[in-house]
Amino acid sequence: MKTNLIQAYKQAPWRIQLQWIGLFLLGLVLIAAITGVYLNISAQAATSGRMIQFIARDIDDINNEIAELTTGLARARSAENMLKRSEELGFDIINPAEAVYLEIPGYNPEDYVVLAPPRVSFISESPIIRSAYKVSLWEWFKERIWQLPISVDQPLEEIIP
Amino acid sequence: MKPPFFKRYAFVLGVSIIAGIAIIIQLVRINYTTYASELIAKSEDYQGVNKLVYPPRGTIYDRTGHILATNQVGYELGIDLKHVIDPESIAFAIATLVEDVEYADVYTIANTGQREQENRYFVLSSYVSKEIIQEIENLEENYALRRAETKSIKPSLNGLVWTPMSQRAYPEGTLAANILGFYNYFSRETAQGVYGVEEAYNRLLSGKPKTVYMPNDPYLVETLPEINPGASLVLTIDREIQKMLEDTLVKAMDWSGAEGGTIIVSDPETGEILGMASTPFFDPNKYWEYQETFSGITPYNRAIGTAYEPGSVFKVITMAAALDSGEVTPESTYNDFSGVFWVDNTWPIYNWDGGAWGEQTMLGCMQYSLNVCLAHVAIDELGDELFYHYLQSFGFGRSTGIDLASEANYPLRLPDNNQWVVLDLATNSFGQGIAVTPIQMVTAISAVANEGKMMTPHVVRSVIDQGQQYNVNPQVINTPISAETAKTLTDMLAIALEEEASIALVEGYRVAGKTGTGEIPTELGYTSSLTNTSFVGWGPADDPKFIVYVWLEKPTISKWGSEVAAPIFSDVVEKLVVLMKIPPDNIRLGIANE
Question: Would A124 be classed as within a structural domain?
Answer without folding.
Answer: no
